[in-house]
Amino acid sequence: MVHFIVCWGWGACLYRSVSQVCVEKSLIFRSNTPYSTDIVSDPDGQDPLFCVQLDDSKLNYFQQPQDIKESDFAEFLEKYGRHSFLAPSQVQPSFSAFYRAGDPILIYFDSSSVLSMLRQPIKMGASGLCVDGNPAGFLDSKSTSCIRLFANLRKSCMTDPALDAASYYRDFTVLKVPINDTVTPSMKVNVTAVSPPGAPHMKDNTCINVVSEVIYEIEYSGTSGIQSVSVQFKVSNISVNSRSSLQQHFTMHFWTRTLSHVLPRSGNPGYITGAPLLIANSGAKQRMSILRSESDGSCSQFLRHTVQFGRNMRTGCKISLSPILEDDNCSYIQQKLYKAFQGMSRTEDFAVTGSAHSTQAEEWMTILIENCSVEAVNCTSCCMVPVTLEIQILWTKVGLLSNPQAQVVGTRHFYHCQPLKFLDMSMVPVTTIVTFTDMTDWPEPPRGQPQMHWKLPFDIFFPFKISLICRRHLKMLCRAALSPLVRSPGWCFVSPPHVTAAISRLYLPCQRLRNESIRCWSNIPFITVPLSRAHGKSFAHRSELKHAKRIVVKLGSAVVTRGDECGLALGRLASIVEQVSMLQNQGREMMIVTSGAVAFGKQRLRHEILLSQSVRQALHSGQSQLKDMAIPVLEARACAAAGQSGLMALYEAMFTQYSICAAQILVTNLDFHDEQKRRNLNGTLHELLRMNIVPIINTNDAVVPPPEPNSDLQGVNVISVKDNDSLAARLAVEMKTDLLIVLSDVEGLFDSPPGSDDAKLIDIFYPGDQQSVTFGTKSRVGMGGMEAKVKAALWALQGGTSVVIANGTHPKISGHVITDIVEGKKVGTFFSEVKPAGPTVEQQAEMARAGGRTLAALQPEQRAEIIYRLADLLTDQREEILLANKKDLEEAENKGRLALPLLKRLSLSTSKLNSLAIGLRQIAASSQDSVGRVIRRTRIAKDLDLEQVTVPIGVLLVIFESRPDCLPQVSALAIASGNGLLLKGGKEAAHSNQILHHLTQEALSIHGVRDAVQLVNTREEVEDLCRLDKLIDLIIPRGSSQLVRNIQKAAKGIPVMGHSEGICHVYVDTDASVEKVTRIIRDSKCEYPAACNALETLLIHRDLLRTPLFDQIIDMLRVEQVKIHAGPKFASYLTFSPSEVKSLRIEYGDLECCIEVVDSVQEAVEHIHKYGSSHTDVIITENEKTAEFFLQHVDSACVFWNASTRFSDGYRFGLGAEVGISTSRIHARGPVGIEGLLTTKWLLRGDNHVVSDFSEHGSMKYLHESLPLPQRNAN
């Protein structure tokens, strides 16, 4: 029998002498307890208590945290842990990091020591025949089917392994993780066959026990490590005939053990699976991270893997010791390696839970470290350095069975070390292993019920649960911020005065912890110390909004309600809730200030009144008077009272779908004038945010007086809360919010009323600009207007909060408007206190258009003179250009973010500049009559002549990365074609681009068209530039395939000219010349492998396999160090093939290529059409008929015969230079020079001509005579 006292905050206590759990009866909406219950009256006449008598205390509290010492680790790991990826005896592992999704699963044949891959056959082509070489992908659960044909079934029945069940599990094992060299026994997993059938055999005229279906069940653990593999079969019988066939099915199913009682729950203060593990370094809270490898296998200096709770990990990479051996100091080397492993100089503490506060010492524990000094005892003269770090984490579930909390109870850094003298200093392989061990001891189920089906004593569902530490030395009084807490040996009670009455009292079970404190789980938001964060000035640029941590979203009435004002806009509201939930789950703190209660209540009351009147009038006056019914004017406060509950219920239902809790807070203007209420509100909001709850705030319009007409913003420290715009601004400043998003029914702020002809959306609004803005009327519903929004936004901006006003009702953007704003995209109007030093990108585009029109009006000789001048400047200013380029190269190398191919593209040299100058002079010489050239003349009728002439396209946007030589090339082509030009270069080439653009403008200045070429230096995102459809006429991307694809996806209403991929093929025919083959392939692949016109896939006729020509090709590629990937058909011809390609649509951009086999030139053409990118494709053959077939049938921009793919280039085509290579079929195709940057217009010259003169009874007739073209300039 447990004695305890239940006390109320005002002093009344009730003595109980039974073991009971009590809670307010009003909070119980379901009970399934098999135990005795009791209703206890409240001594003060308040709500009665619902109490359950317990037979077993374990039903509520099943486990307490325990102390973990260094000596306990080995014991606990052995007792609770499973096999780790690394045996303690292994100092240096031989396997790689882990299987990634889609990686082939490795198998090992012990008898022959052969390493292979687990296969999942697939069908090929329309015939559906089986292709056996397809590897099964890790975590790729899927089913495939295919058909096998048998020419001689009697023979195949006994010899074909595909028909024998034993071949799918016998004689090989599956590897837990990939390996590099040696296979250790601990890495092998046997394949278990479930009721395996016997071997296939012939009986009479039938093949018996033929495998028709194979099902693999593969269990994995964490992000890597295959734990078990089982296989089961279905068999069938095949009769021998001339068309014997078999359809086989193959299934791969991956699964992991997940117990229902450890699934994460919303609001649980403990760690949830996948949450980052928190550590502290000198008091600062950080995420635990481990080493991460670059593409070349070296350890990244900047990027690290975040350790996620509950997920075992293993990474490996190589680190160079040579740069740190300057003083040959062993201790110095050790510390460098320790720092590399830990990511910081010293790791001190780890967080017990995922919601730990850095200021609360009881929520942190010290990390135990076993370093190299332990192993150095056996080798006193050795310098032992760490090569492997094993992070061992012990955790357990504690607290309520109804909502268990995961806590980390111990963490150890265990280093495996080796003598320094045995290591290769240039590249030392280092490994990090993270293992999580669950130490939870779950209680036995009550009354002999099954483990998975037993019931808790009762089910109570609260929106959230939180943890409170109450110190013993406070004796009978535990204080939680503003709330008195009375505790007894078994129970605590909290009654915060400022929390709403519905959840103001709850009885809290407590448990004693090892640090002599009481931990209590509560269901109410009691107040703690608010979170502190740096808050000063607002963000200066949109690109900084992605760093916003605390965000307020204000929803106007027009956003929440439908356009017909007959209900809520459910689809729009659901989309907003989804975006807020997404940002909340990213770790941000979201708050919503919502309108709509008055409008929603008005709609509900109007319907009720209409229904009531219609019934009465139908009964007394007949149907004829229904149309004359008048709805009375509804008082706003009554509408708010009727609409508030329905609005909040809808929010709660929607947020529940994303496992997020929401809490409602109603405020009035008076609450901000009362200092105590302000502190209470501030504390409540901070506590809700700390517990990952989304506060939904609204003005309590049911009790507030009507707004005073002259009460408005009166300075930084005073704001009258008269609508939700001012409320949102006040809360944003009070809560030190990073960002306030105001959603309305307009796109943002315009320089004149929206809808007028000259109205332009203001992208960035600065304080002081409001004088130049004309405000229109307010929205159709709600109390505010755009003027109120702007004033509230400026007040919040002065308080240090960034503001964006945007449209939340537009069907095309409302589904992602909030996330777009947070990502820094150009949406709505951004309020900023910092004006840019130069023009905005919109102004630059307008300047480029005006300059381009002036440029097009110049004489051809004048445009050529500008280009000649630019060519001279490239050689005259060579030293300055190379010096700027050197800065870019040094910064790129120091940051280590550019791959080697991109570094090559970034580099400029004297020879490159000379080649650029030569190309520019070619452009100048060939552009004399480009603009204004007549390409067609037609006499429509007498004295009515029509001409078609070439004209510039308009304003070009060229986006390029890592290629500063692109800037003068594209500039020269734009000048020659009379186009205005916007250039957006990569930041990695900022210095080079700056000086090259300066030289370009210097050349343009000789004829006063300096502004025709603009370099975008602002922080504009590429996606935002692609939306300027009214200012830009054509986008030309120059860069990686990913860049091109992103631009093609982002461009809205602007054509994009370019190619997303350069998958170029070379087909070697049976009649190919031996001398030509190796030269063309070497040049196509090895001359510049990073180019978009480099060979990526080599197609070889099947008859050339195992011939001297094939051997020469392979030998040449090996000498050039080209990595070969085998296509599916090529791999099927080889016993031991190179790594099989994952896709035949890969642009490697490096010394790598794919080799595939085809049966004919027709199949080569089909392969190119299926897997190519319509860029450049080549045939090598001496058969003219075959070559012409290839040239005519391959549908690519460039098709060559006996020539390298590298000829696909504007300079080599004699175009002088190119803006890119287009694979589209409209306007321009292939290398695009001046001609591709021109369009046409029609000029009609007449003399009082009208169409009626050409009618049946008119006086004129159409002639449509072709006229000779004017003589072109011979120069």
From TrEMBL:
Signal peptide feature range: 1-20
GO terms for cellular component: mitochondrial matrix
Catalytic activity: L-glutamate + ATP = L-glutamyl 5-phosphate + ADP; L-glutamate 5-semialdehyde + phosphate + NADP(+) = L-glutamyl 5-phosphate + NADPH + H(+)
Keywords annotated in UniProt: Amino-acid biosynthesis, ATP-binding, Kinase, Mitochondrion, Multifunctional enzyme, NADP, Nucleotide-binding, Oxidoreductase, Proline biosynthesis, Signal, Transferase
Top-level taxon of origin: Eukaryota
Residue ranges annotated for the Tectonic-1-3 domain, each copy included: 96-255, 266-438
PROSITE patterns: GLUTAMATE_5_KINASE, PROA
Family designation: In the N-terminal section; belongs to the glutamate 5-kinase family.
Record protein name field: Delta-1-pyrroline-5-carboxylate synthase
Organism: Zonotrichia albicollis (White-throated sparrow)
Name of encoding gene: ALDH18A1
